[in-house]
C-alpha cells in the first residue's frame, strides 16, 4: 500500500526459522490435500472449507479460486434461489475479510465480481460504499479505482439518470484530487469521465467546464510545477478537443500561462520543458504558426535547460538539432 | 484524614501551587530520583486552593465565578469583568468583580444573581435580578459540561511538552485532539491559513502567485539543507525582523505575509520577532505537522493546563510525593544552612531544603503590570467555526495581534451546540487592550450571542530577596513549550544546589 515504510530485513533467528518451517509444512499439506480433492472432483461442504482455509493463507491461487467456484455450482443448495443468496452473501463477507489483508489480489477481485454476477439482486450501493471506504484507506490503489469503475457502470445500468451518476463521480474525483493532487488515479478517472460530462453540456457550459479544468490544472502547476499529473491531464484535455482550431487555442493558452509562471520562477524544469514541447506541438499542428521570436525562445530555453538539468543534457542537445533541421 | 500530621518530617522540596510549572517541577524532582539517580528527594506539594491547576486551572462557570469572587489573588488579577447574558432579547449585564471574599464568609457555593449584584456596573436600581438568574441558569444547568481555562494553550505535535509526556509516559493520562484549522482574521474577515500542499492547492482566496510563493517557503522549510541555509541567512540579517526578512527574501506581502508572521510564527505585535527566531518558529511548526496527522498542534481534552498539571501531580504522587489541597502555609524561617521551616495550617510543621512557589504564595512578592497578559473569553450559543472541531486563530489589525482559540465539545470544553472563544494578547488590560480583545472576539464571533464574556489580566510577579524558586505566570505564547522549558530550568537550578 502507498505510504507504508518497508520493513527492515534481517537474518531470522533459529526459533523464527522453526516457526516458518512449521507454517510452510502446514501450508504444503493443505495445498496437497486441496489439489487431491480437486483432481477427484470432490464438491462437498468439507472441500469448500478446505479451499477457504487455503485461500486465507494465499489469495493468489487462481486454480483454487476456480475450484471453489466449481464446488459452489455443484452444491445442493445452489439450485434454490434463497440458499444461493445466503451462500453468496457469506462468500462476499469472506472476501471482505481478506480484502483488507491483501488489497492487490486480482483473483480475489475477480471472484468477487463472479459472486456478484451470480446473485439475483446484488446491492451495488453497498459495493460503492465498500470501494469508497477502500479508497479512503488507500486513495491510489488502482484495483480500487478499477473496481469502482465497474461498480459505477452497474449502478448506471440500474439508475434512472445514468448521466447524473457520472456527474457525482466527477465530483468524487475532484474531492480526491483536492485531498492529494499527486493522486494519478484520481486525475485519470476524471479524464475518463470528462467526455461524458461534457456531452450533457450546452456550448456555453462546455466552454465554462473546459475553463474550469484548465484552472484546476493551473492551480496544480502553481502549487507544484514539477508534479507530472497536472501536465499529463492537460495532454488528455488536448486529446478530447474536437477540432484542430480548438487544440491550437488550448496550446496557445498553455504557452501564455507557462510564460506567466516563468516570470516569477524561471528555474523550474518542467515548465521550461513543456514550453518547448508545446511550441513544437503547435508547429506540428499548424506549420508556420510559431514565430521567429518564439523559435529563438525555444533555443534559449533549451540552452537554459542544459545548465539547470545537467543529467539530461544530451536529450536537450538532440532536441536542439532536430529543431535546427526543421526550422531552417 | 484530619488527624494525619506531617509534623517534623523533612522534605527535599516543598512546592507551593499546583500550576503547570510547579507540577512539572514537583514531578521531575520526585520521579527522576525514584528511578534511582539520587537519594532522598522527597516532595511535598501543596495548593492553598481546593482545586488543582493554579494559574492554569480549569473551571465550570460556577467555579469560575467562585475563582473571581473568592480564590483569585487581587494583586495578580486586580479585577475581573464578567458580562452575563444577552440571550432572548434581554440586555447583557456587566459586573466588575474588584474584590474577593474569603471562602468561609460565603454561604452558598452556587453563584446567584444576589452574589453578583454588588459588582453590577450599571445603575444599582435598574438591576434585574430575574433576568440575571435566567441568564445564569442557562449556563448553570450544564455547569459540569464546561471546562473554562484561565490560560489556554496548545501542545506542538513535535515539541518539549509532547516529548516530556512521552518520556515520562504520562501520555496515557491525558487525551488530545488535533487542532484542525488555523485562521487569520484580517480586516474583519476570517480566512483559513493553508498549512499543506493540499490546502494551498484547494485555497480559493490565494492568488496563483501567492500560492507559488507560499509553496516555495514550505519547500525550503521542509528540506533540512535548504532550511539550514535559510536560518544562517536569517541569523546574519540581524537588523531585519522576521516580517522584513520574509518581505525581502520571499517577496511576501499582504495577507500572505500576515499569515506567515502572525499565524505560523506567532509574532505578537508587541515583542520584536527577529529574523532567525521567526524562521526557527516556522521550522518547528512545519516539522510538527504530519506526526499525528495534518496538524501542528494538539489540544488536550477537558482543559490543557489543568489536565496536564494533574497528570504531572499524579506521577509525582506515584513516585512518592505528598499532596495537600486547600491548605495554607506560612514559611516561618529561612536558614542558609539547613533550608526552610514550613508551617502548614492543619497538618503540622515540616522542614524543606528547597521551596518552589507560585509567587502568589509570597506575601511580599512584587507584581509587575508591565509584564502582564490580558485575557478574555466568551461562551457562544453557536458553533460558529464548525461543530466538533478545534481551531487556533490570529486576529491582526494595525500592527496589533491577538491570539484566539476556538473550542467545542470536541475537546469537551463546552456542551454540544455551544463553543468557547478565547482571546489573549501580551500587555496590561488598558482600555485600548480591552478594545483590541473585544474587536477580535466580535470579528470571529459575529452572528452568535455570548452567554458569558469575561475580561481580565494576569500580572507576572517575582519573589524578591528570598531564596525561593519562583515560577512565572502563563505567558502569551500559544504552546506549552516555554512552560516546560521554564520548569526544566528551575529543576536544573535545584539539582545544582
UniProtKB/TrEMBL annotation, chain A:
InterPro entries: Prenyl_trans_a
Catalytic reactions of this protein: geranylgeranyl diphosphate + L-cysteinyl-[protein] = S-geranylgeranyl-L-cysteinyl-[protein] + diphosphate
GO biological process: prenylation
Entry keyword Cell division: no
Any GO CC annotation of this UniProt entry: Rab-protein geranylgeranyltransferase complex
Pfam family, one: PPTA
UniProt EC number: 2.5.1.60
Keywords, alphabetical: Prenyltransferase, Repeat, Transferase
UniProt family annotation: Belongs to the protein prenyltransferase subunit alpha family.
Function, as annotated: Catalyzes the transfer of a geranyl-geranyl moiety from geranyl-geranyl pyrophosphate to cysteines occuring in specific C-terminal amino acid sequences.
Protein's name in the database: Geranylgeranyl transferase type-2 subunit alpha
Annotated organism of origin: Coemansia erecta
Automatic annotation (TrEMBL), chain B:
GO BP terms: small GTPase-mediated signal transduction; vesicle-mediated transport
GO CC terms of this entry: cytosol; nucleus; Rab-protein geranylgeranyltransferase complex
Organism, scientific name: Coemansia erecta
Pfam families per UniProt: GDI
GO terms, molecular function: GDP-dissociation inhibitor activity
SUPFAM superfamilies (alphabetical): FAD/NAD(P)-binding domain (SSF51905)
Family: Belongs to the Rab GDI family.
UniProt-recorded name of the protein: Rab GDP dissociation inhibitor
InterPro entries, per the entry: FAD/NAD-bd_sf (IPR036188), GDP_dissociation_inhibitor (IPR018203)
